[in-house]
Amino acid sequence: MRNKKNILFATIALTLISGFTYVISQTKPTTEPKIIQDTVKNVKPTIIPLPDSIFTDKGLKLRPYKKNAHASYYADRFNGKRTANGSRFNNNSYTAAHKKLPFGTRVKVTNEANGKFVIVKITDRGPFVKTREIDLSKRAFMDISKNKGAGAMKVTIETIIE
Fold first, then answer.
1. How many Å apart are CA 91 and CA 137, to the nearest integer?
2. pLDDT, tens only, 81-134
3. What one-character DSSP code corresponds to residue 88?
4. Which of 12, 24, 49, 143 is most open to solvent, judged by the fewest CB atoms within 10 Å of its CB?
């Protein structure tokens, strides 16, 4: 009989302990879990729209004129001859010839192959070849040329606004 009392007592004790453990596991913890802040901020960059007609490059106000234009350079035989605006042509200066742009217009000419550019002044009319858009002095052409043996290249032409 004593054995039965011990077994009964152990069973009741076990039931009470398991019930107590179940109740403890179902209650909320006394300390709240720490919320870890995300270190990466989801901030969108501010985009400022620029006008389509005017771009700035190192303080210059530029207006796009033509992309994929063909440029060439003056032959040496024109060195020292008069240009259409009356000045003498010099192959070592930064000048150019264009069919339509007014004399004295400053133009930024960028080589599309390598990104190099020069600023030249329009002093003459030409080139008188249909496929060419601008004739540069030899010095200006060689400054932006990728291949020094080339005679023509594709450029982007932008006029400088004063």
1. 5
2. 999 999 999 999 999 999 999 999 999 999 999 999 999 999 999 998 999 999
3. B
4. 49
Q: Write the pLDDT tens digit of every residue in 72-89.
A: 999 899 999 999 999 999
Q: How far apart are CA 52 and CA 2, in angstroms?
A: 101
Phi, psi for residue 20 in degrees, rounded to 5 = -65, -40
How far from 110 is each of 10, 21, 86, 114, CA to CA, in Å? Answer: 95, 80, 27, 9
Kindly state the tokens that stand for 106. Answer: 């400053």
List the one residue out of 48, 27, 91, 140 whose CA is nearest residue 155: 140
* pTM, entire model: 0.64
Matching residue, tokens 């990104």: 115
The encoded tokens of residue 143 equal 């400054």
